[in-house]
Amino acid sequence: MTSIDELFKSSGSSTASKRKFDSSGDPQQLYKSSRVKPNGDTNGELHATVEEGDDEEYGVARPPEDDEPEPEDDEEGRFFGGGVNKESKEALDYLDEYDQESYVPEKIDKAWVRKLGLNFEKRISKNAELRSKFEDDPQKFMGSEADLDASVKALSILSEHPELYEEFAKLGCVNSLVSLLSHENTDIAIDAIEIISELTDEDVQAEQTQWDAVVNAMLDADLLSLLISNFSRFDEANEADRSGVYHSLSVLENLASNSALATQIGTKTSILQLLLSRLSSTPSPTITQNTQYTAELLAILLQTSPDNRTAFLTNLQAPTNGIDTLLQLLAPYRRQDPPKDSDEEEYVSNLFDALTCLLDSPLAKPLFLDAEGIELLLIMLRDAPRPTRSRALRLLDHALGGAPAAATPVCERLVGAAGLKTVFGVFMKQQRKGGLDASGLEHLLGVFASLLRCLPGESAARIRVLAKFVEREWEKVGRLVELRREFAGKVGRVERKIEEEGRGLSREEKQDRSDEWLSRRLDAGLYCLQTVDVVLAWL
Q1: pLDDT (tens digit per residue) in 405-418
Q2: Locate the Beta-catenin-like protein 1 N-terminal domain: which residues (predicted)?
Q3: Of 222, 256, 278, at which residue does a domain stop?
Q4: Is the pLDDT of residue 431 over 80?
Q5: Do residues 360 and 398 make contact, with C-beta atoms less than 8 angstroms apart?
């Protein structure tokens, strides 16, 4: 017997969110037709011939035009005519015009949402009743299943009317919608997840109180637990289930736009472990849209909340820690870049982002050393193409930064792993074609500053760093002086323009423009100028 899940496969309603699920199908399977030979024969056996010279027209006559005289009736009557006489055509035209004039758009207000909610609740109750009564006979409740599916999709219009969110939540319909995530029919659960994604999407023009009303009702209905439990229920070999995973990730991303909720998601649920597990057990050799989205959501949760970073570093220790897992996922790209403008490129960028914000925490640095992260980054700096090399340099800068107590062992590992030759080699190649961009140079200068700041004064590692600066007749110091002159010139020009713009402005007006002016100074290279000064001061 056909399973009930197979009876209700549908693409679902369109979503208003900026991100779209990519569902591609085989066009050859969409349209099939009989192969017709030039003579019109479809089976190769029958052949029709037409005698030449027969110019008579056959078939039903076309309807007369408005200005065309009506043909005379024949004894067969309207069978061979157009089927509609002039009087009937005028009557039909009149009815069409009346229907158009009498049409009044439905008013969408609180009364409308109450009616919508009542119908939605009735469909849920009816389906539950029939499912319980005819559990072993899907044919008996398939009609109610289709009605319920249609009612779920009808809720999509609410995303265009966020002013009704609070009323919808008061009716208790949000609780009912969330409860459908555990429905026996996976397709209905997926449709419910998609509607929740639409209602919570950041593109919906909802006020904070309206968004809070519907989201708080969803959380009270145990939305997070149901979302997480559904991941194990979905089979991503099936396109509909892939869509369910995608929209589940979308709901979590929408909720994480609120920092308090992001912390709740990361610390009160198992989502961090789930995301890391999904990344480390990707079955396909290619990175799918959902895999990239998983990496992006992990990076968002870690960037949004320090508590999430602490939870990731302290709770994910067995069988391997989270830092080690992320480094293993990046290892295949140590000598190659992912395809440009692909999901895989976004995936790699998200992994680097996740590691970068983790390494700002002192808890991450010992785990990073144990996983041989320094050695992997040095390979990337030597062998990887420019995009990956720039990301690796940014990660190295964050690994060496922070309080000296946690950063000193990382700096010592860099020197001990023969990393000075690699780092200074990148620095001297920076001015050549294909070298680092401005962002890469900024992080490279940050590495130098961290080495000079954290390494003990009389240690062998610090002496090796100083020796690198003075070798070959101080060429590295000379390069630093050139960079300082270059950045000082750019920042000086911007300072003069800002000074001119500030003349005649009041103190309040200058204060209003202070952020804009600081941004312009930074764009001109203020941070790099300050870092070069720090390095030269240490030397």
Answers
A1: 999 999 999 999 99
A2: 87-193
A3: 278
A4: no
A5: yes
